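Marked as duplicate of an earlier ticket. Keeping the data here for the record.
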Amino acid sequence: MPLSSFGELLNFDPAGIATHRVRVRGVITHQQPGEAIFLRDAERGLLVQTTQAGEVRPGDVVEVMGFPAMGLFIAFLEDAEFRITGTNAIPESIPITIREALQGTNDANLVNITAQLLEVPDTPESTVLVLRVEDVVFRARLPLPRLSLRNGSWLRLAGVCLAEESTFASPQFIASPRTIELLLRSSADIEVLSMPSWWTTQRLFVAVGLLLGLGLAGVVWIAMLRRRVLKQAEVIRAKVQREATLEERHRMAREMHDTLAQSFSGLGFQLDAINLDLPAEAEVARQRLQTARQIVRHGQEDFRRSLMNLRAQELDRGGLTEALPEFARNLTAGTEIELHCEMPSPPPRLPESIESNLLRIGQECLTNAVHHANPKNITLSFSREPGGLQLRVTDDGVGFHPDQLQHPANGHFGWRGLRERAEQIHGKVDLESQPGRGTIVTVTVPN
């Protein structure tokens, strides 16, 4: 029989409806075993219904004998038989739009369409993809188990296009399909172009809720921080006033020591000299001189007591090695902190300025450890090392990054004052701390 082209099927015949078979040749694009094969001749596709056994692959060239029949939009062959006559290159899919697919001219042809995945419903025998392009929803079917695809993804699908549900929508009775179905051959016919955005309505609501929660927490934190700043400001104000008072007391003590104390000492020396120069028979004058010497001695004692009262009150009770441990014990009393004090015996004799500044430095370190570090143990030690006198405060608390102290905005005024006090006595401050590993503050003063 002569070969017919796909376009010649069901052409007008003056003899009437054809009841004989026709012979066509084409390249296989897809097969549904026991049901149908799909061919391509040039750019046209053809559906061939056949129950013939035998496997064909895309690219096989076959000749087909069958009865032509009219489908919804183009002709197809039914009750057909085929035979393989050769092998050709695997046909490439033709890119089309959804509007071109709805014209019906690409029915039974191998095409590719870009669409967005709506869902993958559960089906027992095959995988069905529900897709959308513009306002058209269609299906793609794949004879494989369920695929792992995210709804909302944009896909490029290659498959055989089948028009469905014809309707005569125009006055000229031109048939146009209502939708299409793509027959996919394998998962290789699915190309993921883009994944859907991670943001969904549910996640957006969760994110908004988290932001609102964080905003509320921020407001509460700001209120607490403001209260803390006000409290710290009060502490700093009281500390400045106390320091100013102590500084003034020390200044007055130095002035009185350099003036009145020297005058009392000079007066005592002169009375002793006069007592040596008096003759033995001047007993009355000697008694009066002795009375004057006692008055001067009592005046010196009262003056020395006044000078001691002008010094730091803590140091009045026995010096640095007694005042600082006593302060630490009072500070940790009623807490679960275990205090360890290591003080030299006998205590070293230190100048008043060094002793006073070391006392304030130690008090600052102990206060910071108790109030901020949340420690279980605090060790206070004072020793004489080759490099000089060394005061060390160690805790096993939460620790911190030392870089935080470099930013004045963080409010670490105590650390700044601590370094200034050390500089006044030509000392050096070393800080060792890490989060979770406690803090060690070491102050070294030259001998």
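See parent ticket for discussion. The mean pLDDT is 83.
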